[in-house]
């Protein structure tokens, strides 16, 4: 059993929402959405304490979550329609989703944040434009380190196109001046098109998720590490990046170095796509993952002790054993699926294959994050 001797309480800011998922114009599912709903599952499962600020309307359709939202009587719950389209060619599949914000709740203002409280870490994870520059600045004032999902900063919503979600360049977002105060900025490979990575990495650590290729972590002075993927049987890619971020932040908060935290993020991101909505994972999986995190942290401990901080920037030690232990964790625990199908399993039987001559992988289908179009038509 792993015990946390020094709890690190966090602050998560981002609205819950309703997600309607359609494929070829047929409703596939309705689910609780919003990055905060996915991230809270991971942090709760790993016993990372946090306070959550989220807003919904009186129409909020789900039982009161463990972390209840603020109900705004005069607003509605943010609603997204995710339209998936069946295509045959790889180039068509790359842009097989259109995302529309059909309705939106009130933004989260600085005075909605707890007053007189300091947090070890914060997470700005808006999905519908609910985080304002002044709100992020207030978070930076009360949190020791802040993790930001770039979708909270660069998304726009076209009212003349049904609330179509588009992306703008980070420099045009109104948030760029805050980068030197941000600890970690997470973006997908598609969102990275709107970021000058060489410039931004000198201001904060940048984590770029690359779907079936894993992820890369960039920091100042040329520091960079690529971390391999875990593949998964894909049912719904919504929330993969959110669960990645939940795993990544958990690893950092628990004292792991950045490379190992990124591998943990890849692990939870891969599990997320096998279900619709926030993942339901067996508690034994979380306990086994915590045990493996603790073992790995002990390998990192001398390095982190010398650094006198808990944000270890370095090339990770050989990750083969940590990777294999997480694979075993998934294959040896029961996964509770929201949409069981005959013969469906989250993970197939493990099969050893070579990845860069060092890493064993699961023989699973690929995981990817869906792209969002830009305001100027960039891919």
Automatic annotation (TrEMBL):
Q: What is this protein called?
A: Carbohydrate kinase PfkB domain-containing protein
SUPFAM superfamilies, alphabetized: Ribokinase-like
Q: Which PROSITE patterns match?
A: PFKB_KINASES_2
Alphabetic keyword roster: Kinase, Transferase
Hey, which family's this protein in?
A: Belongs to the carbohydrate kinase PfkB family.
Q: Which GO terms describe its molecular function?
A: kinase activity
Residue limits of the Carbohydrate kinase PfkB domain? 205-277
**Pfam families given for it?**
PfkB
Give GO BP annotations, semicolon-separated: myo-inositol hexakisphosphate biosynthetic process
Kindly give the PANTHER family that the UniProt entry links to this protein: HEXOKINASE FAMILY MEMBER, INOSITOL 3-KINASE
The record lists the organism as Crotalaria pallida
Q: What InterPro entries does the annotation carry?
A: Carboh/pur_kinase_PfkB_CS, PfkB_Carbo_kinase, PfkB_dom, Ribokinase-like
């Amino acid at each position: 059993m792993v015990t946390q001797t020094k709890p690190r309480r966090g602050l998560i800011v981002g609205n819950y929402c309703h997600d309607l998922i359609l494929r070829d114009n047929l409703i596939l599912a309705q689910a609780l959405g919003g990055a905060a709903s996915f991230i809270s599952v991971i942090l709760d499962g790993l016993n990372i304490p946090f306070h959550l600020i989220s807003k919904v309307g009186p129409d909020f359709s789900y039982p009161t979550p463990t972390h209840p939202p603020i109900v705004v009587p005069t607003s509605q719950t943010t609603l997204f329609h995710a339209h998936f389209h069946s295509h045959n060619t790889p180039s068509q599949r790359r842009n097989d989703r259109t995302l529309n914000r059909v309705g939106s709740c009130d933004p989260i203002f600085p005075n909605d944040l707890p007053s007189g409280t300091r947090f070890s870490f914060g997470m700005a994870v808006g999905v519908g434009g609910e985080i304002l520059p002044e709100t992020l600045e207030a978070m930076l004032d009360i949190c020791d380190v802040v993790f930001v999902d770039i979708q909270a900063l660069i998304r726009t919503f076209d009212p003349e196109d049904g609330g179509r979600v588009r992306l703008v360049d980070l420099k045009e977002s109104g948030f760029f001046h805050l980068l030197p105060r941000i600890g970690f900025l997470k973006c997908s490979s598609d969102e990275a098109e709107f970021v000058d990575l060489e410039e931004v990495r000198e201001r904060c650590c940048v984590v770029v998720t690359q779907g079936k290729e894993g992820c890369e972590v960039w920091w100042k002075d040329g520091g960079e590490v690529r971390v391999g993927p875990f593949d998964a049987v894909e049912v719904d890619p919504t929330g993969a990046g959110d669960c990645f971020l939940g795993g990544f932040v958990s690893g950092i908060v628990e004292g792991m170095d950045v490379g190992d935290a990124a591998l943990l993020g890849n692990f939870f991101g891969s599990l997320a796509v096998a279900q619709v909505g926030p993942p339901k994972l067996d508690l034994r999986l979380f306990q086994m993952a915590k045990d493996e995190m603790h073992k790995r942290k002990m390998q990192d401990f001398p390095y982190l002790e010398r650094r006198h901080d808990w944000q270890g920037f370095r090339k990770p030690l050989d990750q083969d054993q940590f990777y294999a232990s997480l694979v075993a964790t998934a294959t040896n625990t029961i996964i509770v699926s929201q949409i069981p199908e005959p013969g469906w399993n989250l993970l197939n039987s493990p099969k050893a294959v070579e990845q860069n001559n060092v890493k064993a992988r699961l023989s699973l289908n690929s995981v990817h994050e869906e792209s969002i179009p830009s305001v100027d038509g960039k891919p």
